Amino acid sequence: MIKKLLSLFLGLVVVSVSAQQSYYNDVDLTKSGLALKQELATKIINTHGNQLDYTPDVWEACKVTDVNPDNSSQVILIYGYSSSGTTSRTRGINDNGGNTGDWNREHVYPRSLGNPNLGSSGPGSDAHHLRPSDVQYNSQRGNKSFADGSGNSGDVTGGWYPGDEWKGDVARMMMYMYLRYGDRCLPSTVGVGSSSATPDDMIDLFLEWNAEDPVSAIEDNRNNYHENVANQYAQGNRNPFIDNPNLATQIWGGPAAENRWATASVNDITKLADVKVFPNPSYNGNITITASKSNITEIKIFSVLGKEIYSEKSTTLINNRHTIENLTSGIYILKISSDVSFTTKKIVIN
Prior knowledge:
The protein is of the alpha+beta class. It contains ten helices and 14 strands. It has a four-stranded antiparallel beta sheet, with no helix packed on it. It has a three-stranded antiparallel beta sheet with strand order 1-2-3. The protein has a three-stranded antiparallel beta sheet with strand order 8-9-12, with no helix packed on it. The longest helix has 15 residues, at about 165-180.
């Protein structure tokens, strides 16, 4: 969920938020691109041991995973942003059903957009993309594809905007569904965007939302509940892109997303300790990058909202240095890639 610009910025540059979960100990995280995608897909498929019934299992799971942390008698409603009505952000935990004023189970990946239809079992009852939603607001969304917008959720040109607070959640759910169910749940079917810059059918829209909107406590709670098979309505698997949004960047590229594990590689040759930027802040628009390793493959600079403003590939460091000139004032994210991993740093241009 997006909070304020400061929260977004911190989510992008803080690189040691949590340790890598033991769930991934048997996953080869040194891989990238489609090889890493396959590693993660195999993991979440093999650990999805409990296939939930659409009724009552999904109802009961949502009452635990989506509970309001500030009021345990409520659930948080996806797309919601107001205090009451169809766009309310919370609803009584037991006010679930199909009537006006109730909350129901929103298929964030609409069943009808699956190929074939996702139905009410398998992908149609996968709790990782089923979220509480106001009945009427759920109906208003229908099976509209996700499209870019700003502010609160609602209809936009070309589809449905989930809202600034929810777009990261949506992106990570769509990424999970693609890994878990493959071509049956293509991102390019459920979102309005281009896949031309990715090695398969991931679209730029979801990569941007994943980078712009950091992981929320609700997302973490859902993941932790569903991994633990001691929980009655747990599936046994996790959504990797909640655990580390940066995994999407490693697979599909795009703007640098939050790296919650410091690095997803166990053989990182461009550690933060080895990379320095000076002067920082810069007062003349020029910065110099130094690194103890010279095999830097790419340097990119992004705005705090994930927009790429500078890119240079096959970078040659002369005496372990590289200078970038004529940058305009602002706060940016610098991403430096090696042949096996990458690291990020905050830079300030005055």
